[in-house]
Write a structure and sequence with these properties.
Helix content is 19%, strand content 32%. The strands form 8 sheets. Strands 8, 9, 10, 11, 13, 14, 16, 17, 21 and 22 form a 10-stranded antiparallel β-sheet that branches. The protein binds (2R,3S,4R,5S)-2-(hydroxymethyl)piperidine-3,4,5-triol. The site of (2R,3S,4R,5S)-2-(hydroxymethyl)piperidine-3,4,5-triol (DGJ) has 11 residues, from loops.
């Protein structure tokens, strides 16, 4: 049983293989959070709570009598309101019809269910194998009729707990939700660091580790999407935690819109973390009898460092978030024409790329931006999802058939949420663009955003894309979104509802994606938002892979893919080999290194293959063979980060589930003359088993440079391996294949 209830002590314990999460309903009905960490075998941790008087904090008052040693301001709680004497960051803020914000939630009942709860219209962690259990705790404000159903899903074997909340208005008047977070988590003791992932376009998900200090710290997005700038994934950890040791907690928001993650260290040096929809652009009118469902958060805890924590996240995302036919199916090696041609292409050019690609083993050609409407640059055409046959020189169907005839599948780019002012769609429906009447809209990439909070607009998009996918032989869709949303306003919403726009936009997006992915189950959808501007667990529910970044420079990609790997598996990271000098950095790196880096993702090419040398073409053949050979190991093996971004060498490895083999990749980021040999430990293998380690350059696997025979897993983990100093140049890649001896 993953959920244990001790009725007598009113203690609720969620147990997973290695962790425990505990709550207690106290004598006043307050739902205390008593513990989350390594197993404690059901012990009542409420004994660790200290009750003492707190000056200038509100005290619990019952029948006008103040209980001096009981203040919500310091008690660890499960889901908190912004009133009632708790002045810390809170999860729920409600404005009632009279304009007041008072609310105190008491736990009134709970129930457990086999299997996991599901969410309507939102992405969530699903449980197709019925391996999870559900706990629902009903909280109630005794005075207003407001209720909060706390939802918990427990995946025992996977060390995963999910949380979400349903707010229900059982009162007689409409109330306004000003904040409705999905998670609040309290730690009474401990001194923590917080790992968050910041960035910008073409430089996403850089790791930042900072101490949780007195005061409030936060990361979030008010950009209409989860953003390049802060990822909705973070880790809280004890000070000494590293890749392989120490206590740490992961939080992944299954949502692609505006979010806020806050951490606070309070007057008693306790830590609270709150995560949910960003309240800045959120005002939800909750009519009597109606409910509001928050998005979900995935939680995991590891006492064995970040590596194990990430692998827990990889497993749950790969198995219980990504869906559809392509979840486990081998993804095609694709070639995308964006960096090869940008907007200047026609069918003839694409067919010439396909012809050359077919000879080298590439499996799909993706036609990027520029095939529709009037679209020679980014000033026009978005919204006019009709193939530009004049530009292409043929119909889309014909083009798809020609590509197929060369032995390649055919994929296509869309930006369904975009609309250009210079488009037939805008001319016909200016009110379909997100803009505030009477004000000039804020442009970004010369475009506006389509108001997909509206059902007529959703129908238009579903209709246009469905027609195109039905008409031409299309096997893949790249779903791009190239700007943030500045004005949070819809012409279709009443003034009092404008605060619902940002979330309604996301519900609209999820509805469109649900319709299209279920109507076209054979099509592989790849998410994208100017690269990795919407790389989150919400999008992964619909698109099992996401273009990781517009930055294709192999050396910059080391950091981007490293940061991404903390919360997301490599099977979700779109990664391509591009031309040199690199279009984003001007850097020149070896072809083999570009291949080795891109191969740690969903692999493809993004260059004009017709312009490559014979030697480079030969390398493509080799890379594709290697990618196929190691596909399972890379895509579903256990991922280990061996060095961090400050190390002159990036080292990472994939270990098979049965620990019979591993593939290690080493890339030199920076070299100094006469430097020390690169040495590193190899975690994850079976300590007792003997292995052979074969060192190769990725372009010449058949000519090993160095072989070590019969070395134990323990020796590899504790003693490690050294790259011999010969052939060690800046930006060079090495790979080491480890197999059971
Ligand atoms: C941004 C994407 O990330 C690129 O790969 C490309 O598709 C462009 N948009 C096209 O406009």
């Amino acid at each position: 049983m993953a959920i244990n209830i001790n009725e007598e002590k009113r203690l609720i314990t969620l147990q997973t293989k290695n962790t425990e999460y505990q709550m207690k309903i106290d004598q006043y009905g307050i739902l205390l959070h008593t513990y989350y960490g390594a197993r404690i075998y059901g012990s009542d941790m409420s004994a660790a709570i200290s009750y003492s008087e707190r000056g200038f904090s509100g005290n619990l008052t019952i029948d006008r009598e103040e209980i001096r040693a009981y203040s919500l301001d310091v008690l660890p709680q499960e889901y908190t309101c912004s009133s009632g004497g708790d002045y810390r960051i809170s999860a729920l803020s409600v404005r009632d019809a009279a304009g007041g914000t008072s609310c105190t939630l008491r736990a009134v009942s709970f129930q457990t269910e086999k299997g996991k709860y599901s969410l309507d219209g939102l992405p969530y962690v699903y449980d197709e194998n019925n391996e999870a259990e559900t706990l629902l705790i009903m909280m109630k404000d005794p005075y207003s009729g407001l209720e909060a159903e706390l939802q918990y899903g427990v995946f025992e074997e996977k060390d995963i707990i999910t949380r979400a909340v349903r707010i229900i208005n059982r009162g007689g008047q409409t109330v306004q939700l000003e904040k409705a977070a999905s998670l609040c988590l309290d730690w009474q003791y401990g001194d923590f660091d917080w790992l968050t992932f910041y960035g910008c376009h073409a430089q996403e998900r850089n790791l930042q580790r900072m101490p949780v200090h007195h005061g409030v710290q936060s990361v979030g997005s008010t950009r209409g999407n989860s953003s390049h700038h802060y990822n909705p994934f973070s880790i809280l950890c004890e000070k000494n935690t590293d890749e392989n040791n120490g206590l740490c907690y992961a939080f992944s928001f299954v949502y692609s819109g505006e979010f806020l993650m806050e951490a606070e260290k309070d007057q008693a040096s306790q830590t609270r973390l709150v995560l949910g929809i960003h309240p800045a652009n959120f005002r939800w009118n909750l009519k009597p009898g109606m409910s509001f469902q928050t998005p979900e958060v995935i939680l995991s805890c590891s006492s064995e460092g970040f590596g194990k924590l990430s692998r827990n996240m990889h497993r749950i995302i790969r198995n219980n978030v990504c869906r559809g036919e392509w979840k486990y199916k081998q993804r095609p090696v694709l070639i995308n024409n964006w960096e090869a041609t940008y907007f200047s292409f026609d069918a003839e050019k694409l067919i010439s790329i396909a012809e050359e690609s077919a000879k080298l083993g590439i499996e799909m050609l993706v036609m990027d931006d520029g095939w529709f409407g009037k679209r020679e640059d980014d000033y026009s055409g978005l919204g006019d999802w009709y193939p530009n046959e004049k530009k292409l020189g043929c119909t889309l169907k014909k083009l798809g058939e020609e590509i197929n005839a060369r032995g390649l599948k055919f994929g296509i780019w869309f930006e369904p949420e975009g609309i250009s002012e210079d488009s037939d769609l805008y001319r016909a429906h200016p009110d379909w663009a997100v803009q505030v009447p009477g004000r000039p809209p804020v442009l970004s990439r010369n475009q506006l955003v389509l108001d997909i909070s509206r059902s007529d607009v959703q129908d238009y998009i579903i209709g246009r894309i469905s027609d195109i996918l039905s008409d031409a032989p299309i096997s893949y869709v790249k779903w791009d979104m190239n700007r943030s949303i500045c004005e949070k306003y819809s012409a279709a919403l009443e003034p009092a509802q404008q605060g619902e726009f940002a979330h309604r936009f996301m519900l609209g997006l999820y509805h469109i994606l649900e319709e299209l992915t279920s109507s076209f189950p054979h099509v592989l959808f790849e998410g994208c938002s100017g690269g990795g501007g919407r790389f989150d667990a919400g999008m992964l529910y619909y698109t099992p892979q996401i273009w990781c970044s517009d930055n294709t420079d192999a050396i910059n990609r080391l950091n981007i893919q490293y940061g991404t790997s903390f919360g997301y598996p490599v099977s979700t990271m779109g990664a391509h080999v591009s031309a040199v000098p690199n279009h984003q950095t001007g850097r020149v790196t070896p072809f083999a290194t570009r291949g080795a880096v891109a191969m740690s993702g969903t692999f493809g090419y993004e260059l004009d293959i017709t312009k490559l040398t014979d030697q480079e073409k030969e390398q493509i053949r080799t890379q594709i063979d290697r990618f196929h050979k190691y596909y399972d190991l890379i895509q579903s093996g256990d991922y280990y980060r061996i060095t961090g971004p400050q190390d002159p060498c990036a080292v990472w490895s994939f270990v098979s589930a049965d620990r019979s083999q591993a593939l290690i990749t080493v890339v030199s980021r920076q070299i100094t003359a006469n430097s020390a040999p690169k040495h590193f430990n190899v975690p994850g293998l079976d300590a007792q088993k003997l292995y052979n380690a074969v060192f190769v350059l990725p372009e010449a696997e058949e000519k090993p440079l160095h072989v070590i025979e019969k070395v134990s897993g323990a020796a590899l983990e504790n003693g490690g391996l050294t790259i011999p100093t010969m052939q060690w140049w800046e930006y060079q890649a090495w790979q080491i294949l480890i197999t059971e001896a």
